[in-house]
Amino acid sequence: MSQKPVEWVAALIERFQDQLPIKVGELTKQMRNNIEQKKECLINLSKFKFSLVINGLIDILRSIEAIRIMGPDQERNLYESYLIVLDTLEQCLTTQPKDPGTTRLDEAIYVNKLLPVLSKLVNIPNEAAQVYPIAQVKQLASNVIFALSVNNFSALFGKILNRLEETNDDFQEGNNSSMNIYDLELIQHINFDMTKLTRLLNEVVVKWKHLRKNNQMILVMSLEKAIWNWLDTYPDEFKDLQKRPNAELSDNCEKLFEHLDQFYDKQKGIIFIFG
Protein backbone atom coordinates (compact mmCIF):
# COMPACT_ATOMS: atom_id res chain seq x y z
CA MET A 1 0.00 0.00 0.00
CA SER A 2 2.86 2.38 0.82
CA GLN A 3 4.21 1.96 -2.70
CA LYS A 4 1.00 2.61 -4.60
CA PRO A 5 -1.52 4.18 -2.21
CA VAL A 6 -3.55 5.86 -4.93
CA GLU A 7 -4.05 2.66 -6.89
CA TRP A 8 -4.73 0.62 -3.76
CA VAL A 9 -7.40 3.01 -2.45
CA ALA A 10 -8.95 3.36 -5.92
CA ALA A 11 -9.27 -0.41 -6.21
CA LEU A 12 -10.94 -0.69 -2.80
CA ILE A 13 -13.31 2.18 -3.62
CA GLU A 14 -14.24 0.49 -6.89
CA ARG A 15 -14.97 -2.85 -5.19
CA PHE A 16 -17.04 -1.04 -2.55
CA GLN A 17 -19.07 0.75 -5.22
CA ASP A 18 -19.59 -2.43 -7.24
CA GLN A 19 -21.22 -4.11 -4.22
CA LEU A 20 -23.77 -1.38 -3.54
CA PRO A 21 -27.46 -2.29 -3.97
CA ILE A 22 -27.81 0.15 -6.86
CA LYS A 23 -25.28 -2.05 -8.72
CA VAL A 24 -26.18 -5.58 -7.59
CA GLY A 25 -29.79 -5.29 -6.44
CA GLU A 26 -31.18 -6.34 -3.07
CA LEU A 27 -28.40 -7.49 -0.76
CA THR A 28 -28.26 -11.02 0.62
CA LYS A 29 -26.83 -11.60 4.09
CA GLN A 30 -23.47 -12.61 2.63
CA MET A 31 -23.39 -9.62 0.29
CA ARG A 32 -24.20 -7.31 3.19
CA ASN A 33 -21.38 -8.81 5.23
CA ASN A 34 -18.98 -8.28 2.34
CA ILE A 35 -19.86 -4.63 1.89
CA GLU A 36 -19.65 -4.06 5.65
CA GLN A 37 -16.11 -5.42 5.57
CA LYS A 38 -15.20 -3.06 2.74
CA LYS A 39 -16.85 -0.22 4.63
CA GLU A 40 -14.84 -0.88 7.82
CA CYS A 41 -11.68 -1.12 5.76
CA LEU A 42 -12.35 2.28 4.16
CA ILE A 43 -13.05 3.87 7.54
CA ASN A 44 -9.77 2.57 8.96
CA LEU A 45 -7.87 3.49 5.80
CA SER A 46 -9.23 7.05 5.95
CA LYS A 47 -7.18 7.62 9.12
CA PHE A 48 -4.05 7.40 6.98
CA LYS A 49 -5.24 8.30 3.46
CA PHE A 50 -8.09 10.64 4.32
CA SER A 51 -8.15 12.73 1.15
CA LEU A 52 -8.06 9.71 -1.18
CA VAL A 53 -10.86 7.92 0.67
CA ILE A 54 -13.10 10.97 1.08
CA ASN A 55 -12.80 12.01 -2.55
CA GLY A 56 -13.55 8.45 -3.64
CA LEU A 57 -16.68 8.29 -1.48
CA ILE A 58 -17.82 11.70 -2.70
CA ASP A 59 -17.48 10.50 -6.30
CA ILE A 60 -19.62 7.45 -5.46
CA LEU A 61 -22.27 9.66 -3.88
CA ARG A 62 -22.37 11.89 -6.94
CA SER A 63 -22.59 8.90 -9.26
CA ILE A 64 -25.59 7.60 -7.30
CA GLU A 65 -27.25 10.99 -7.64
CA ALA A 66 -26.86 10.81 -11.43
CA ILE A 67 -28.67 7.48 -11.74
CA ARG A 68 -32.09 7.62 -13.36
CA ILE A 69 -34.57 5.63 -11.29
CA MET A 70 -36.62 3.04 -13.16
CA GLY A 71 -39.23 1.45 -10.91
CA PRO A 72 -39.74 0.92 -7.17
CA ASP A 73 -37.09 -1.79 -6.81
CA GLN A 74 -34.37 0.47 -8.17
CA GLU A 75 -35.66 3.31 -6.00
CA ARG A 76 -35.30 1.12 -2.91
CA ASN A 77 -31.79 0.09 -3.95
CA LEU A 78 -30.90 3.73 -4.60
CA TYR A 79 -31.80 4.86 -1.09
CA GLU A 80 -30.21 1.79 0.46
CA SER A 81 -27.00 2.71 -1.38
CA TYR A 82 -27.26 6.29 -0.12
CA LEU A 83 -27.52 5.00 3.44
CA ILE A 84 -24.42 2.83 3.12
CA VAL A 85 -22.25 5.55 1.55
CA LEU A 86 -23.50 8.32 3.87
CA ASP A 87 -22.84 6.21 6.95
CA THR A 88 -19.33 5.48 5.69
CA LEU A 89 -18.71 9.16 5.02
CA GLU A 90 -19.94 10.19 8.45
CA GLN A 91 -17.67 7.73 10.21
CA CYS A 92 -14.65 8.76 8.12
CA LEU A 93 -15.30 12.44 8.86
CA THR A 94 -15.88 11.75 12.56
CA THR A 95 -12.50 10.04 12.84
CA GLN A 96 -10.76 12.54 10.53
CA PRO A 97 -7.15 12.99 11.67
CA LYS A 98 -5.98 16.44 12.67
CA ASP A 99 -3.74 17.19 9.71
CA PRO A 100 -1.85 20.49 10.11
CA GLY A 101 -1.10 20.33 6.40
CA THR A 102 -4.76 20.67 5.44
CA THR A 103 -5.31 24.04 3.76
CA ARG A 104 -8.41 26.11 3.22
CA LEU A 105 -8.22 25.07 -0.40
CA ASP A 106 -8.48 21.42 0.70
CA GLU A 107 -11.51 22.33 2.83
CA ALA A 108 -13.15 24.14 -0.06
CA ILE A 109 -12.65 21.16 -2.36
CA TYR A 110 -14.35 18.76 0.06
CA VAL A 111 -17.16 21.16 0.78
CA ASN A 112 -17.83 22.22 -2.81
CA LYS A 113 -17.93 18.63 -4.05
CA LEU A 114 -20.00 17.23 -1.20
CA LEU A 115 -22.49 19.91 -0.22
CA PRO A 116 -24.58 20.04 -3.41
CA VAL A 117 -25.49 16.37 -3.00
CA LEU A 118 -26.04 16.60 0.76
CA SER A 119 -28.19 19.72 0.43
CA LYS A 120 -30.51 17.92 -1.96
CA LEU A 121 -30.72 14.86 0.28
CA VAL A 122 -31.61 16.75 3.45
CA ASN A 123 -34.34 18.53 1.50
CA ILE A 124 -35.98 15.51 -0.13
CA PRO A 125 -39.76 15.87 0.28
CA ASN A 126 -41.02 13.24 2.72
CA GLU A 127 -43.53 12.02 0.17
CA ALA A 128 -40.90 11.68 -2.59
CA ALA A 129 -40.52 7.92 -2.19
CA GLN A 130 -43.12 5.38 -1.25
CA VAL A 131 -40.87 2.34 -0.95
CA TYR A 132 -38.16 3.52 1.45
CA PRO A 133 -38.05 5.62 4.67
CA ILE A 134 -36.69 8.91 3.40
CA ALA A 135 -36.27 10.19 6.97
CA GLN A 136 -33.25 7.92 7.48
CA VAL A 137 -31.49 9.25 4.39
CA LYS A 138 -32.25 12.85 5.34
CA GLN A 139 -30.98 12.33 8.89
CA LEU A 140 -27.76 10.68 7.73
CA ALA A 141 -27.14 13.48 5.22
CA SER A 142 -27.61 15.96 8.08
CA ASN A 143 -25.19 13.94 10.21
CA VAL A 144 -22.58 14.09 7.44
CA ILE A 145 -22.88 17.89 7.24
CA PHE A 146 -22.51 18.06 11.03
CA ALA A 147 -19.38 15.87 10.93
CA LEU A 148 -18.00 17.81 7.97
CA SER A 149 -18.41 21.10 9.82
CA VAL A 150 -16.26 20.03 12.77
CA ASN A 151 -12.98 20.16 10.82
CA ASN A 152 -14.12 22.22 7.84
CA PHE A 153 -16.10 24.96 9.55
CA SER A 154 -14.47 27.88 7.74
CA ALA A 155 -15.46 26.62 4.30
CA LEU A 156 -19.08 25.99 5.32
CA PHE A 157 -19.37 29.25 7.21
CA GLY A 158 -18.01 31.07 4.17
CA LYS A 159 -20.96 29.82 2.13
CA ILE A 160 -23.38 31.12 4.76
CA LEU A 161 -21.66 34.51 4.79
CA ASN A 162 -21.89 34.73 1.00
CA ARG A 163 -25.62 34.17 1.20
CA LEU A 164 -25.96 36.76 3.97
CA GLU A 165 -24.37 39.26 1.62
CA GLU A 166 -27.30 38.96 -0.79
CA THR A 167 -29.61 41.95 -0.64
CA ASN A 168 -32.94 42.94 -2.07
CA ASP A 169 -31.01 45.06 -4.56
CA ASP A 170 -29.24 41.93 -5.85
CA PHE A 171 -32.59 40.26 -6.38
CA GLN A 172 -34.17 43.26 -8.06
CA GLU A 173 -31.22 43.60 -10.43
CA GLY A 174 -31.71 40.00 -11.53
CA ASN A 175 -28.53 38.59 -9.96
CA ASN A 176 -29.80 35.03 -9.66
CA SER A 177 -26.52 33.17 -10.10
CA SER A 178 -25.87 32.89 -6.37
CA MET A 179 -29.45 32.26 -5.27
CA ASN A 180 -29.39 29.08 -3.25
CA ILE A 181 -31.48 28.82 -0.11
CA TYR A 182 -29.67 25.62 0.81
CA ASP A 183 -26.64 27.63 1.97
CA LEU A 184 -28.71 29.36 4.64
CA GLU A 185 -30.39 26.10 5.59
CA LEU A 186 -26.93 24.70 6.30
CA ILE A 187 -27.19 26.57 9.61
CA GLN A 188 -29.60 23.88 10.80
CA HIS A 189 -27.04 21.09 10.35
CA ILE A 190 -23.68 22.62 11.35
CA ASN A 191 -21.88 21.99 14.63
CA PHE A 192 -22.01 25.36 16.42
CA ASP A 193 -20.39 25.73 19.82
CA MET A 194 -21.01 28.97 21.72
CA THR A 195 -18.10 30.80 20.10
CA LYS A 196 -19.22 29.89 16.59
CA LEU A 197 -22.86 30.58 17.40
CA THR A 198 -21.93 34.03 18.71
CA ARG A 199 -20.03 34.70 15.50
CA LEU A 200 -23.05 33.63 13.44
CA LEU A 201 -25.45 35.83 15.39
CA ASN A 202 -23.12 38.78 15.00
CA GLU A 203 -23.12 38.40 11.22
CA VAL A 204 -26.89 37.99 11.13
CA VAL A 205 -27.47 41.10 13.25
CA VAL A 206 -25.18 43.23 11.09
CA LYS A 207 -26.68 42.10 7.79
CA TRP A 208 -30.33 41.51 8.75
CA LYS A 209 -31.88 44.72 7.46
CA HIS A 210 -30.28 44.30 4.04
CA LEU A 211 -31.37 40.71 3.51
CA ARG A 212 -34.01 39.66 1.05
CA LYS A 213 -37.31 38.93 2.75
CA ASN A 214 -37.34 35.23 1.85
CA ASN A 215 -33.82 34.87 3.28
CA GLN A 216 -34.99 36.46 6.51
CA MET A 217 -37.70 33.82 6.83
CA ILE A 218 -35.24 31.01 6.20
CA LEU A 219 -32.86 32.51 8.76
CA VAL A 220 -35.55 32.64 11.44
CA MET A 221 -36.28 28.92 11.07
CA SER A 222 -32.63 27.94 10.70
CA LEU A 223 -31.45 29.93 13.72
CA GLU A 224 -34.08 28.33 15.93
CA LYS A 225 -32.87 24.86 14.90
CA ALA A 226 -29.22 25.86 15.36
CA ILE A 227 -29.89 27.08 18.89
CA TRP A 228 -31.61 23.84 19.87
CA ASN A 229 -28.78 21.85 18.29
CA TRP A 230 -26.31 23.86 20.36
CA LEU A 231 -28.27 23.08 23.53
CA ASP A 232 -28.31 19.37 22.69
CA THR A 233 -24.63 19.21 21.73
CA TYR A 234 -23.13 21.56 24.32
CA PRO A 235 -25.41 21.51 27.40
CA ASP A 236 -22.46 22.35 29.67
CA GLU A 237 -21.89 25.59 27.77
CA PHE A 238 -25.48 26.58 28.40
CA LYS A 239 -25.13 25.78 32.11
CA ASP A 240 -21.97 27.87 32.34
CA LEU A 241 -23.73 30.69 30.52
CA GLN A 242 -26.30 30.91 33.31
CA LYS A 243 -23.48 31.43 35.84
CA ARG A 244 -21.21 33.58 33.70
CA PRO A 245 -23.19 35.55 31.08
CA ASN A 246 -21.47 36.29 27.79
CA ALA A 247 -21.75 40.01 27.05
CA GLU A 248 -21.24 39.68 23.29
CA LEU A 249 -23.77 36.88 22.96
CA SER A 250 -26.31 38.76 25.06
CA ASP A 251 -25.85 41.91 23.00
CA ASN A 252 -26.29 40.02 19.72
CA CYS A 253 -29.40 38.29 21.03
CA GLU A 254 -30.92 41.58 22.14
CA LYS A 255 -30.31 43.14 18.73
CA LEU A 256 -31.67 40.08 16.97
CA PHE A 257 -34.72 40.22 19.22
CA GLU A 258 -35.37 43.76 18.04
CA HIS A 259 -35.14 42.66 14.39
CA LEU A 260 -37.46 39.73 14.98
CA ASP A 261 -39.89 41.87 16.92
CA GLN A 262 -40.38 43.94 13.80
CA PHE A 263 -40.30 40.95 11.48
CA TYR A 264 -42.62 38.46 13.11
CA ASP A 265 -43.93 38.58 16.66
CA LYS A 266 -44.30 34.82 16.94
CA GLN A 267 -40.53 34.34 16.64
CA LYS A 268 -39.71 36.19 19.88
CA GLY A 269 -39.56 32.99 21.88
CA ILE A 270 -36.31 31.66 20.44
CA ILE A 271 -34.37 34.48 22.08
CA PHE A 272 -35.78 33.93 25.56
CA ILE A 273 -33.72 30.79 25.82
CA PHE A 274 -30.64 32.93 26.56
CA GLY A 275 -32.30 34.70 29.45
Structure notes:
With 275 residues, the chain is mainly α. The chain folds into two domains: 1-151; 152-275, no CATH class. The chain contains 14 helices and no strands. It has helices at residues 5-18, 21-24, 29-45, 50-65, 72-94, 104-122, 134-151, 153-164, 168-172, 181-185, 194-207, 213-233, 235-243, 247-263. Helix 4 (50-65) runs parallel beside helix 6 (104-122) and helix 7 (134-151) packs across helix 8 (153-164). The radius of gyration is 21 Å and the shape is elongated. The model is unreliable at 171-179 (pLDDT under 50).
Write the layout of secondary structure elements.
Layout (H helix, E strand, L loop, with lengths): L4 H14 L2 H4 L4 H17 L4 H16 L6 H23 L9 H19 L11 H18 L1 H12 L3 H5 L8 H5 L8 H14 L5 H21 L1 H9 L3 H17 L12
Helix pairs in contact: 1-3, 1-4, 3-5, 4-5, 4-6, 5-7, 6-7, 7-8, 11-14, 12-13
Short descriptors:
2 domains; single chain; mainly alpha; 275 residues
Radius of gyration computed on alpha carbons: 21 Å
State the shape: elongated
Sketch the topology as an H/E string, one letter per element.
Answer: HHHHHHHHHHHHHH
Detail the poorly predicted runs. 171-179
